[in-house]
Amino acid sequence: MQTTYNGKSLPQDGKPIEYVNGKYQVPDHPIIPFIEGDGTGRDIWRASQRVFDAAVEKAYGGKRSVKWFEIYAGEKAFREFNTWLPDDTVNAARDLRVSIKGPLTTPVGGGIRSLNVALRQILDLYACVRPVKYYQGVPSPVKHPEKLDVVIFRENTEDVYAGVEFKEGSAEAKKLIDFLNHEMLKGGKKKVREDSGVGIKPISITGTKRLVRFAIRYAIENQRKSVTLVHKGNIQKFTEGAFREWGYEVAIQEFRDAVVTERESWILGNLEANPNLTVEQNAALIEPGLEFGSEEFRKNLYAEVKSVLDSIGKSHGNGEWKKKILINDRIADSIFQQVIIRPDEYSVLACPNLNGDYISDACAAQVGGLGIAPGANIGDGYAVFEATHGTAPKYADKDVINPGSVMLSGVMLFEFLGWHEAAKLIESSMEKTIQQKYVTYDFERQMEGATKVKTSEFATRMIENM
User: Fold this and answer.
1) What's the CA gap between 186 and 463, in Å, rounded?
2) Which of 149, 216, 316, 401 has an alpha carbon within 20 to 30 A of 461's alpha carbon?
3) Active-site option among 232, 382, 438, 442
4) DSSP 8-class letter at 38
């Protein structure tokens, strides 16, 4: 490990977090790197760091403390080092294991397309984790925001975010289109228009299974009731359809004792409702219109029903399946409706990259917006916690922006470290401050009788409320 990064020495009174045999070893005074962020990130970070330090001091009375260590990315890095993402920043995030960041500018005019995506891919932070729940007092556009309490696990390294695309008219695009049209699609009716830009959408077994595995483990450890695989497999059969199939494989092969799939629950429930039900009758109940299917389809369905009853009839039958984590799946467009009209039916969502990006913002909108939406990017041995919103440069350095996203990302960070008391202090003091209607402008304009305060004043009131 280096002793300096970007020309700055590590704090002498802190120790790095270590990762041994798949577990984090957290000292009482860990060195945690931070990137303050661009635009409004500067105001938000100053306020958040004060709250973090106050919560740790209040919770542990000096026995624990965070030794913050600034690292650089975005505009500040470009001004000081003439690069958007210095190697030493990546090295520090890797060596020190756990870090936190504000929002970063996406550079214009080439180079790194997204600094956030770059960090995720370089450190292989394959799981983007976004909890979405309601805090009392937060203005919401829906009648019952409290019914939504989901944790979204978004695959973070592939899908269209892999960055494999070619500009319309480029030699690369022409070469790829020619190959597709004259080799892969030769003799068929499908053709790619020659004036197209072309992107590649990779979804792998490796990327899918480790993401779904992560989500199911979280559900088990946190007593969540279900894990829903979100996909567009009805159209993209070999990418998102495969995500669905591989997700079910992980659930059944690796977590058999703890889970039941939705179809298995139907089969077991049907038999419990009528113990005299034959395999054929059970199959007809889970596939209406079975008689119109082919002979091969019917035989495969009968075999599925028999396999379920033979393999888990004893372990999951007689109502035991109701105590298991339900593994189901939903089409991506359907889930946008479901989280609005039936939000309490969902608990953990596991998604390919693009679906997870969309649905996490849509869910956040129901409970107050991205201003209080936290997030984390987690891999095997590394984690970066982050604000989920943009930099809002027109509000930069005006001390007006809601700091909730970074503060609640700090809650996730402290939970990750096992510092639950500090995490709870931050969360409860934020909720109390909002209930007092002492809020930044984004909430104040939606709340009758609220007091509009600065970012720094909101942080001060939070500290008082601890």
Assistant:
1) 67
2) 149
3) 232
4) S
